[in-house]
Structures are given as structure tokens and as C-alpha cells.
Amino acid sequence: MKISEILKNRRVTVSFEVFPPKEWDKIENTKKTVREMAESKPSFMSVTYGAAGTRAGFTTEIAREVENNGVTALSHLTCLTSTKDKIDSVLDEWQASGIENILALRGDIPEGFVFPDEQHFHHACELVKIIKERGGFCIGGACYPEVHPDSASRVEDIQHLKEKVDCGLDFLTTQMFFDNEVFFRFKENCLIKGIDIPIIAGIMPITNANQIKRSVELSGCKFPKKFEKIIERFGDNPKAMKQAGIVYATEQIIDLMANGQNNIHIYTMNKPDVAGSIMKGLSEIINE
Ligand code: FAD
Question: Active site residue: 17, 65, 67, 100, which one?
């Protein structure tokens, strides 16, 4: 099913992200993770794509497993290190496999990367155009409530976001954020700019202290004082930190929903127990 239809037909959606393994011999473990996560009945599950674009087959295999478990799959696709021919062959394969939803991304720029020639992509909007021209796919894109780290300013970032949306996006998913006020301000700025497609709020449950450094490196996101206190108090106690991280993410989602944000995406870090605990904490709220 197309994600645009899911977003249109359901009042509330909670989706999960899963990432494929780095080595093929671990693929069965990830499939098991998918099966366990599917038991929590997410609205759909997204499957990430290797940053260098070298493991497209891994994403395809995991997306198929998601669909085989009765859950709609959203396959991520990055373009920065791919050629247009390579992207075409991935799209051919996905179309043949019945994959209907793609999150069209640029990918991070590796250090020292030189843009080779016109066969290569510079921005996600070029990928969106190609997928749109082909037809048949529902297309999502990424957005950044705390501004993409490559952008010189918030104004420039939102201008490029508007251009990307106009290339044919059906929905947006945000980078993780921990302060809902940041998200509400971003959503308002999108509306002012005329960006009126659904925006899915990305929530990352922080369940261990090591995740924090990595999350900041990846997203440049800031932690509110309330969360810093949790880390200070429970960061050295893995069980307590996990419990506090799950409760923080659940409360963050409840606050978003109470303020009218009905589409949530959970960066599950391939942890079915964490995803399942959050879903349990929302059981009546989701069906309200
Ligand atoms: P773009 O939309 O191209 O934007 C990147 C930067 O370029 C921004 O600063 C933007 O303002 C600027 N820009 C855009 N268009 C123009 C233009 N025409 N002229 C000048 N500047 C412009 N990475 C992976 O490798 N695999 C994944 O599976 C993956 N999944 C992700 C899922 C989500 C929900 C998010 C938020 C990110 C994900 N990423 C993933 C990370 C993503 O690839 C990086 O954040 C990357 O640096 C930017 O990708 P983008 O698609 O947002 O790029």
C-alpha cells in the first residue's frame, strides 16, 4: 500500500525504522528483528540504505521481509555516490518486487568527496525528479527541524526543502529531535513557506549513554535540560537509562499527539523490545 494512502486514511500513524546488517551473513538476524517488530503492528516500516549505496540488495531483501510480515515497507534510497544508471537499475528491481514507497535521500558527503560528473547527483531533489518521472512510487523526503548541518541558514534550508517538495514529494520525515518546541516551530515555518504535505515526526529513544554522542554527531540535535538531567542521573546505569529513555520517548510522542501531531516515526535502532514498550505505552492513545 502507498504510504500517502496510509497517512490519508488513518488518524494516527506510528511507524518504525530498521537498518539492514553490514554483512550478508547477518541478514537472517535482521529478518528476525523485523518479524518481532511486526508484532507491534506499526503503520509501516522504513528500511535504511547503506551510505555508500553499495548494499542496495540488503535494503531490498529486508523490505521484502517487512512486506511478507503484512507491514507496508518504505525503502530508503541515497543518490550521492550512485550514477543515474545505477539508480535506474535499483528502481527497476524495486518496481518488479512490488516496492511502492521510497524515501529519496542525498546521503552524507564523505570526507574529501569530489563530485565526479553530470552522471552523478548533487541533491535529493534530482533523485525525487527521476523517481517522479518514472511514476508508480509514493515518494518521501527528509527534513531537519534543527536545520541541516550543510546549510548556511534556516532560511536557505527551508527554501531548498520547498524546492524538493515541489519536485514531487508526498510526505516528509524529520531528523530526530528531543525538544518538541523545536518541531512545532519548524512545522509552522513549513506552513508559512507553503509546505503542506504531511510531516512525520522522527523520534529516537535514547536507551544508552553511548547513543547520545552518536546522535549529536549525526544530527547536530540539542538535548533539553530535562533530558540532560536524565543522562546525568541514569547514564551509568544501563537498565535505568533504558527505562528512562523509553519513558522520555513515550512522553515526547504523547505531547506531540496532544498538540495535533498524529504521524510519528520511531528510530528503533533495531530493538524490538524498545519499540514494543513504546507501543504498549501508547496502546489506548493510538486507538483513541
Ligand atoms: P538534500 O535534500 O539534498 O539536502 C542536503 C543539503 O543540501 C541541505 O543543507 C539542503 O538545504 C541543501 N540543498 C538541497 N537542495 C539544494 C540546492 N538545490 N542547492 C543548494 N543546496 C541545496 N542516510 C543514509 O545514508 N541512508 C539512509 O537510509 C538515511 N535515512 C535517513 C532518513 C531520514 C528520515 C533522515 C532525516 C536522514 C536520513 N539519512 C540517511 C541521512 C541523509 O542522507 C543526510 O542527512 C544527508 O546529508 C542529506 O540528505 P537529504 O536527502 O536531506 O539531502
Answer: 17
